[in-house]
Amino acid sequence: MYNPELDCSARIQSGCSLPSSVAKTTPAERGVALSPRAAPLPPPPPPPAITPAGITLEGNNDPSNPSSWWYLDAAVTLARHNTYRAKHQAQPLAWSTRLQKEAQDWADNCWFAHSSRPYGENLALGHPSITAAMDAWYAEEKVYDYANPQFNAGHFTQMVWQRTYLVGCAIGVCPDGVSYVGGVWMGKLYVCMYWPPGNYMGQFSENVYPPVDGSRRRQALGSGEL
């Protein structure tokens, strides 16, 4: 059955892209990301509880085992988020094992598509590490227009959204590859979930601030200079 949410051809304008094996890019260009959804109004339900532990699997496919290929370092992931958020005067995020479990459960489906969960979501496929995936999400900042804020750089805006205060991420345990429209990608699927979700229409200016280093402040003030 045709499903426009999963059909990349129906999502090209919102940023959906296919793994680099299809695009025939070089290894350095192999990171792709699925565009996050713009969250609908009204405001979301109460936040999830922060639980003491995430999920565990057995053997080499245990994502909580540092020796596993599927292991994600929560401290590194959280620190990278907060480094970028600090540039935009956003409060530091806290790590939620509840969101980490939700992200793991969805990522373990091994399908490059958004879930129907009530959280903000950033997904990426093909990057060598979660750090590289986050760097790619943040790189969208250079196309974001602070003078005309809207949903055109959704991975970046979700990362620095002022009202968001929880995050949890995971790498899908996908030894047989990650399915996407057009084939199977033999690599890592990264999923981050956020609470409360960002990217609410009409709320970008109050939730996405220009970088404090001033590198793009002139653009935000309308000077037209970068």
From TrEMBL:
Highest taxon of the lineage: Eukaryota
InterPro entries per the UniProt record, alphabetical: Allrgn_V5/Tpx1_CS, CAP_dom, CAP_sf, CRISP-related
SUPFAM superfamilies associated with the record: PR-1-like
Record domain SCP: where: 72-202
Species: Chlamydomonas incerta
Residue span of region Disordered: 21-52
Record's compositionally biased regions (Pro residues): 39-50
Family annotation (PANTHER family): CYSTEINE-RICH SECRETORY PROTEIN-RELATED
Protein name: SCP domain-containing protein
One GO CC term on file: extracellular region
